[in-house]
Each structure stands twice: as C-alpha cells, then as structure tokens.
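Q: Please design a sequence for this.
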C-alpha cells in the first residue's frame, strides 16, 4: 500500500493542473482558484486538531492526619497527592481530614452501611473493620494492583487486611506500644530505667513520693488506656490471648485476663495515673508528660516523632527514652513478646470508575515504595510496613526509633491489639467497661463478665 501513494499523488496533481489550464473560476468575483482552494484544504487537513484538555474529575480522600502531632505524616500525604495529580490528567483530590476515632467508629461505618464511602479512606484492619467491610463487598480487591506494581510480597504483614487470599487494604506503617520516660527526671530522682516489673513499680513509687504523677493518662477516649490493658493481657494471659478469645478457646472472664485488669485497677487506686483522666483527651496526656507533670507515658511508637520537635516537646526535646513493658512473675507464655501492629492504612471503594481506578493505582504506587517508607521512618518515626533494604534501615539516627527497633530484636514474638481481632461491638464494650472500671463503678471481674457476654453473642452469630 505504501508504494502506491506516490503514483496516486502524481495522478491527482496532474489532473489538477489540467483542470486549471482549461477551466474558469468557480464564482464571479472570487479571487480564489481551484488550485489555491485545494492547497488550503490540504493545509487544513495536514494541521492536527488542537489537543483537548483532559476531562476534570475528583477523587475523595479521607485521612486522619490532623493536628501538630500528625504534621510530618500529613506532609508525606500531601506530596503523594501532588505527585499523583501531576501524573493523572484531570485529577483533583478532595481531602477530608477527620479525627481518628470519629472516622473509625462513626463516619466510615455509616458510609459503608449506605454504600457511599470515600474513594480512598483511612482504614483499620481486622475483624471489626476491614474484614467486615470486605465481606460486605465494599472494598476494592487490591491483589491485582499490588501484583502489577510488584509490591505484593514486600509488605511485612498483610494478615489484618486479607480475606480468602485477597488483599483489601494496605498498612501505611507498623507500631508498637510501650513506656516513654523523662530522662532528666529519672536522673534527678535516681531512677533506673526499668527492665523488670519490680523496677517499674519502684520507679512509679519514687515519682509519686516526689509529687510527680507516675504515668500520664487521658481516658476520655477509652482506646488510650486500652493500649495498656492490651499489653497487660499479653503479659498475664500470654501473647496468644488476643486470638484465643475471639476463637472461643479463652474467655475475657478467665483468671489470667482478670488478673491483668486487676493490675490496672491497682495502679488506679495507687494514684499512678493522672487525676481526672476520664476528662482528658489524648493530646492532654501528651501535655501532662512534656510539661513534667508525669514521669512516664504509655503510648504507641508513632508518638516518638513529637520528642524531636521543640514546638511540641518543649523542654523535653531529645530528652525522652522508650522501653517495652517488662514481664510479670508467673505470667503465661513469652514474657519478651511485644505488641506489634500493622493495622492502620488505606482502603479503597469497590465502586470506582475507570479514571478513578487509574488514580488509585497511581496513589498506591506513589505512597507504597521504599522512598516513602524511609521518609516516614526518618521524619515521622513511623515503623515501615514494607521490607526495607539494610541501607535504608541504616539511615535511622533517631535514638527512640533505635530503641523501638531494638525491642523488636529482643522480642521472642509479636502480638497484635485485640481491637483488630474482636468484632467492633465487642471492642466498644471493652471501652465502655474500662471507663466504668476507672470510675470505680465496676470491678475487674464485672468488667470481664460484661465483655464476655457480648463476645459470646458474637461467637454465636458465626
């Protein structure tokens, strides 16, 4: 076909010349000749049509990175959003920042029930969140996407987002929970950094005798004290307890679990926690600690970035250390086990148009890679959810992050938080009952019995 084009073009040109020689203009008064008209037409045909701008579209993105404590993680998200918008023509993200607990327990469940969640949203893994929504068909199966991107096998742990061999969410990072302590205060009162249970209680007593609250606490949101309860349960009942209870092989009312709750109550009675804690929010707990009103604080490893930021840590900047909760005498199971979670990340709506799906793929590509994981580790002290190279891990200089990573090395095993293994109604009951315990309106046994009643109902539904 290509060889015939010159001959056809020559024939057309010869015919044009012949017609021009014996013909007249098409219209009286016209200055254009057939030849010039043909030339103009050819020029028009050869000129490409202007490129149409991409049709604009928006993708809703729900996040929980609000407030100063989350500013490093928000900066990472903003950069990912900007890069993704630059790669996908017409794309504009609509960001919606919502407080963590409001999103998890109020807004997102309601949106899922109505089948109108945001296209991208902060999501917790586990039975009461991601897996429940996945069973309802609300979450996008990410398996083909992460396989295509070559990152399927690069995550440390996807179990809390996996159902029937498919992946429905991606953790943004990992975390552990332990005690932060005020180094100058410990030195002032001659307190040895606790490595045993007796040393921990001795440190609490010394602080109390000197007019210092031993452990900062803000229990208006019961998930905060529940962090400590979860780890106490892992010590007294063993690290497998968080999976044994929902399986029905152990109970909340078992003696070992009640023993953990009793220790928490004993610490309440001894005045180890902040007075008026039921009226204090999570940020208030941090303020108690950084202002020197409390000598220790039980919190997640995600909080560590605060202590290198003078705007938040104030006089305590770079003067904080971290330890895991020591083992207890006669505790069940591995007493070196630590709480380790990979349960918070992003989920994606199963109802996506083609252009929205392209945006989701680009968002995942730009957020879940070694560069961003390293940045989260270095800037926000967020433990990586993906396997990093030795060179990447070697970039860590923050002393608290090193202490957290060291606690992982020393741990014989890792257990998750029960909020990712029990149904949401059971977890809500733990919060309600814990606040009653703190207020002195329930005993440890009463608390355990009440939670077990809800747990039994959940097991019966299976």
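A: Design:
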């Amino acid at each position: 076909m290509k060889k015939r084009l010159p001959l056809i073009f020559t024939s057309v040109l010869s015919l044009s010349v012949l017609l021009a020689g014996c013909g007249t203009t098409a219209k009286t008064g016209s200055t254009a000749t057939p030849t010039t008209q043909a030339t103009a037409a050819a020029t028009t045909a050869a000129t490409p049509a202007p490129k149409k701008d991409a049709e604009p579209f928006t993708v809703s993105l729900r996040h929980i990175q609000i407030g100063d404590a989350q500013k490093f993680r928000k900066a990472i998200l903003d950069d990912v959003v900007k890069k993704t918008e630059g790669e996908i023509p017409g794309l504009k993200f609509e960001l919606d920042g919502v407080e963590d607990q409001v999103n998890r327990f109020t807004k997102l469940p309601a949106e899922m029930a109505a089948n109108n969640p945001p296209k991208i949203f902060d999501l917790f893994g586990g039975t009461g969140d991601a897996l429940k929504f996945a069973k309802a068909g609300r979450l996008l199966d990410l398996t083909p996407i992460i396989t295509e991107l070559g990152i399927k096998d690069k995550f440390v742990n996807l179990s809390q987002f996996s159902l029937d061999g498919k992946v429905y969410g991606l953790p943004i990072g990992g975390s552990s929970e332990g005690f932060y302590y005020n180094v100058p205060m410990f030195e002032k009162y001659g307190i040895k950094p606790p490595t045993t249970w007796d040393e921990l209680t001795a440190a609490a007593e010394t602080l109390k005798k000197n007019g210092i609250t031993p452990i900062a606490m803000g229990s208006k949101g019961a998930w905060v004290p529940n962090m400590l309860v979860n780890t106490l349960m892992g010590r007294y009942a063993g690290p497998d307890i968080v999976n044994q209870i929902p399986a029905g092989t152990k109970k909340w009312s078992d003696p070992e679990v009640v023993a953990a709750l009793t220790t928490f109550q004993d610490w309440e009675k001894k005045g180890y926690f902040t007075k008026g804690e039921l009226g204090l929010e999570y940020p208030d707990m941090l303020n108690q600690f950084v202002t020197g009103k409390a000598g220790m604080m039980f919190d997640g490893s995600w909080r560590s970035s605060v202590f290198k930021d003078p705007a938040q840590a104030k006089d305590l900047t770079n003067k904080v250390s971290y330890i895991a909760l020591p083992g207890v005498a006669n505790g069940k199971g591995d007493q070196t086990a630590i709480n380790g979670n990979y349960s918070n990340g992003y989920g994606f709506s199963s109802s996506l148009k083609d252009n929205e799906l392209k945006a989701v793929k680009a968002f995942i590509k730009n957020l879940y890679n070694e560069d961003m994981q390293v940045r989260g580790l270095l800037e926000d002290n967020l433990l990586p959810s993906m396997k990093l190279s030795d060179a990447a891990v070697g970039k860590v200089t923050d002393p608290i992050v090193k202490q957290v990573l060291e606690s992982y090395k020393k741990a014989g095993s890792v257990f998750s938080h029960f909020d990712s293994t029990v149904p949401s109604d059971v977890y809500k009951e733990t919060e309600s009952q814990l606040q009653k315990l703190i207020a002195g309106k329930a005993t440890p046994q009463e608390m355990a019995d009440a939670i077990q009643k809800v747990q039994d109902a959940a097991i019966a539904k299976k």
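Q: Thanks. Anything notable?
A: Residues 5-22 form the longest helix (18 residues). The domain at 57-174+342-388 is CATH 3.40.190.10 (D-Maltodextrin-Binding Protein; domain 2).
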